[in-house]
Amino acid sequence: MIICGLAGQLELRRRFAGAAIFAIVAVLGLVGVAAQPDATFTAYVPTIVGLLLGYMILSTLISKLQQWRSRRLPRRTTRLHLSARRSFLAWTVVIGAGSVVAAITGQVLASASSAVNTAREKLRLPTPTKPPPGPPPERICMFRA
């Protein structure tokens, strides 16, 4: 959370500065994935998607915050100012709720996958009582001279 706050502060002061923090965290995630012995291409996808979505969310929230805190508005509260503030708060709540739903869904899917793997390991097929029949003799060699 501290890193996300730092990225937000940097992004608020200078555009695309928060992207550097997200890039550093993504590189650390990619190094962690690469350290696994059986890492495939699909193992890298969540980290890259997380980087892109995280920065898109940060950028959206920062632009809404800048609209809300716009210095061009007069000091007194105006309808535009209140509307921008409500929009910023609404986006914050929507993105927070979406993040919670995504985290819970990820946990449910991970536990379901674990349950399926456990069930597969427990499933043992009986050994056949007689070997399976081979092909009929006339079909063994299809190309005769």
Describe it:
The chain is an all-alpha fold and 145 residues long. The protein has one domain. The protein is 70% helix and 0% strand. The chain has four helices and no strands. The protein has helices spanning 2-13, 17-34, 41-68, 79-122. Helix 1 (2-13) packs across helix 3 and helix 3 (41-68) packs antiparallel against helix 4. It starts with a helix and ends in a 23-residue tail after the last helix.
Write the topology of this structure.
Elements (H helix, E strand, L loop, with lengths): L1 H12 L3 H18 L6 H28 L10 H44 L23
Brief overview, please?
With 145 residues, the protein is mostly helical. 70% of the residues lie in helices and 0% in strands.
Question: What shape does the CA trace take?
Answer: elongated
Q: Give the class from helix and strand content and strand pairing.
A: mainly alpha
Q: Helix and strand succession?
A: HHHH
According to DSSP, the number of beta strands is: 0
Largest sheet, in brief, is: none
Report Rg. 28 Å
What is the residue-averaged pLDDT? Answer: 80
Distance between the termini: 76 Å
List unreliable stretches of 5+ residues.
Answer: none
Helicity level: over 70%
Domain module tally: 1
| Strand composition percent | under 5%
